[in-house]
Amino acid sequence: MSTVTGSRLGDLLFGAQLKVGRPLMKAVMRGDPYIDLLLGVQDPRPLYDIIRKGGPLYRSKANALVVTGHTLGTEILRDRSLNICHTNGKAPGMQLMERVGWDGSILNLDPPDHTRIRRLAQPAFTPRKIAEYRVSVERVCHELLDKAERRGGFDLIRDYAGPLPIAVIGDMLGVPESEHERFYRHGRVIGSIIDGITSLDMARDFKHAHSEYLKLFAELIEARRAAPADDLVSVLAAAHGEDKVTEHELLALCATLAVTGFETTTNLIGNGVLALLENPEQWQLFLDDPDLGPKVVEETLRYDSPALQATRIPHEEREVAGQRVKVDEALVVLVGAANHDPEVYRDPDRFDILREGEPDHLSFSGGIHFCIGAPLARMEGDVALRVLAERMPKLRFDGPRRRRSSPVISGLETFPLAAD
Ligand code: HEM
């Protein structure tokens, strides 16, 4: 069997590190609500409330200053003097990820490298491109529902919200039909790393899928160099030819789009359907007027954000909300909490697709790292929910669902539904 660290002993030590990390944290730092959050809970909202009561900047024993307020959160995310990486050039949690061969690409970069790589990916997300993708998103949505109807027994995540973003990003990158199965198989494993690595088996699976995925893209880049097409890989291959990006950066960006775009979009669709079915009057409003799709998407992002936190690192000592913050101390914006800030949102725990006149949620973060995929995710969410409402207006719960208990991602793992 292949190893993760390069030796059996290394694997043993790495596995032990993953195994003891959580219980150790639990034992040493008991009574810290942010630690409790990091250890994973089904419903983080009670912990958000406790942290909120600790003031605008809650000092956690996990060497983090935690923000729950919308106004301060926005300021921190937009502050250009704050960084993604520590002064040693590594983003939080990066050392663990590097052990399995993933460096996070654009997600873990500060300017000027961040600016250069982001510029390369940008052509894939222009309004013209998003309008073009819309047609294929509609087609894929119908194909997935046709398939689910033939198969019988509908699980929203397995049959619809899970495969959709993988197909869409495959299209965007230019993965040919003949490689869809390979892209899907390895992409699913790669996408799951967004939650972090918690076991040696997971590390092993990721490392294997990641190396297979990179092979696939190395082949695709070679093919596009010879015969460019209208896709992102062709744009990246041309940039490589002009020395704007290294081979490593190029492949890392392709893998990062899977990590950032799969699980998040899946959970936007899953969390949206869950909120609509738990609030039947809102589902009815949407059935009566499917043009409310974009509003359903925005309210889902606010009410049950798929991404729960974003971190910034100061490289100079400074004052934030009346507290001294040291160099390299993490400022963690709890996006899920900021989106329920009672100072900013009326009745924040109510799901209301007709909300108006309130500030934007922070679910796509802010500033120079504002989610580059936001226009794609918004369009996909709109189309996916609309097609579902049109084809399955009698949608209802059909059995127990399983929620993730992750501090990073909010969503369902299984979501059985019936449509008759
Ligand atoms: C509902 C769906 C999505 C959510 C909630 C989401 C959320 C986020 C958040 C919170 C960040 C910023 C992290 C930070 O500030 O440190 C981010 C960045 C990013 N997202 Fe998304 N995302 C979604 C969909 C997508 C999609 C579909 C793609 C691509 C196909 C994508 C690609 C990226 C990339 C490349 C970055 C890094 C941007 C940068 O650092 O400049 N995301 N996303």
The name of the CATH topology is Cytochrome p450
Count of all domains:
1
Shape: globular
Considering the protein shown, what is the CATH homologous superfamily?
Cytochrome P450
Intertermini distance: 47 Å
What class, by secondary structure content? alpha+beta
Counting DSSP H or I runs of 4 or more residues, the number of helices is 17
Uncertain stretches of 5 or more adjacent residues: none
Beta-strand residue fraction: 5-15%
CATH architecture: Orthogonal Bundle
Q: What is the residue-averaged pLDDT?
A: 90
Number of strands: 12
Helix-strand topology string: HHHEEHEHHHEHHHHHHHHEEEEHHEEEE
Main beta-sheet strand count, sense and barrel state: 5 strands, mixed
- CATH C-level name: Mainly Alpha
